[in-house]
Amino acid sequence: MRHGVAGAPATPWRTRMVYLATAIVIMAAIVTPYLVSCAIATGDPFFSINAHTVYYRFAEGVRDKTDLSAGAYIRQKFAAHPIAMLDVGSDGLLVRPFERKWSGFDPWSTVLGQFLWMAALVGLAIWIFTSRGRLMLLMLVAALLPYAFTWNLGGGGEWRFTMHAYPLYLLAAAQACASLWTAVRQRRTPVPARALAWRTAAVATAAIVASAVYLSLPWFVAREAIASGEAVTISAGERDRLFYRKGWSPPRIDGNVTARVSESERTTVHFPLTRKRSYDVILRMDPVQPETQQRLTVLFNSQVIGRLQLSWNPERVGSYRLSLPVDWVKAGGNEITLVPETMVAAGSAGPRFSWLDPSTKVGVRFWYVRVLE
Q: Would residue 61 count as lying in a domain?
């Protein structure tokens, strides 16, 4: 008999209720004394959670020290920016905690960390199809929920805030290894071939759909903020493919800046605008070779809006402000195209660009475009 509470239909419901009631009693016995102590000392049993909202608001630039519960804080955030909060939550729940757990194996072996990373993904997928596995997934999600919506505020994304999820990821990796060992030893898969094919197809489909949604969310987050009249920065980075589509190098971290390098005579930055009105934008970029690249033409939706004299400061990325005329603005997708006067070979551009193919023709090093209020 299976002893899972979550998703174990083969277990009689009365038995499951007994297990659930027992779990609740044990949890109450452990947690209640702490909540009572907080209530006696501060007047708020959930003080240890609610007190952090002052820090969260400070990290966002809000100088408000009035009492605000964590629940009310999250509700306010969802009411103001539901898409942005969905993006932050999905990133904090599914991506950030997982991707940051494997570099600790590098001093031993980079292969070991990569192997465990892949094995953990397989193990998490296997858990979907067993009652005990679903219980483990429920525990994992519940453990990460408090972190999921605040990881991007101040130091809220530090490793220690998700270290309690590490054992679950390692157990998932062990699950994958155990399942593989069972299949090899028995010379057959633990489940029938047809069922295995269906499960694999279901997991693959879900992964493709989830990846597509995850990669497209930044576009809708930017659109939501622009529609609210907020300034939005569209930076080069991990999830920028809808903004930087063709003719760009992969994003590269250089000090405190993540930038792309234009590898075509015309490179375009795509971004959404929600209303047909004039906008101002700021472009942050540098010429790859300041001695020979001094002029650049900027087009907005195929219309010339400026010819820039590029400057160079080794301590600061160049900043250029331009106006987008209302006649050329579209409610929807828009684009700014950069046309450097001169392209140079990456091999002649100095050590900063040594990671590129030396024969690649490059134009500018681009950091971000900022759409102003």
A: no
